[in-house]
Amino acid sequence: MRRAVYPGSFDPVTFGHLDIIRRSATLVDELVVGVLNNSSKTPLFSVEERVNILLEATKDIPNVRVESFSGLSVDFAKNCGARFIVRGLRAITDFDYELQLAQTNRIMNAEVDTLFLATSLEYAYLSSSTVKEVASYGGDVSKFVPPFVVDKIYNKIWSKKNQK
């Protein structure tokens, strides 16, 4: 079985992420979307919320499963029995970082390769950070994320602002 992992924070998941998920799912028998639980960052959504959002966003893709993980992506891939790590590339700046990461992962585990997919042009500008920034100023994020995620973003930002 050809299995790959697509690791990321997905905070929040964007149409760009979903583009990579859909396209990479056609290349493998099973794609495991790994939601990173990174204790050094303060995400907008908890890891459980991000997993649930991704489960909803990918429910129509039968060979995709969603899991959370901590630690290194290459270790997550090994634990999942995956031979490939999928990474999306938006721009040349992504490539420099991602190539270094892929080479490091290859040294750490020679049985895991990295598959790079160029993001579709309509999503090349898009990042989760941009979505959060636009939403924090009340901007319209409906062109960036699935419809059911839009209200979740605004509600989360509103509740965090009211906690301060």
TrEMBL record:
Any one GO molecular-function label of the UniProt entry: ATP binding
Positions that bind ATP: 9-10, 17, 88-90, 98, 123-129
Site keyed Transition state stabilizer: positions: 17
Pfam families membership: CTP_transf_like (PF01467)
Catalysed reactions, as listed in the record: (R)-4'-phosphopantetheine + ATP + H(+) = 3'-dephospho-CoA + diphosphate
Enzyme class: transferase
GO cellular component: cytoplasm
Ranges for domain Cytidyltransferase-like: 5-133
Name used for this protein in its record: Phosphopantetheine adenylyltransferase
Organism: Fusicatenibacter faecihominis
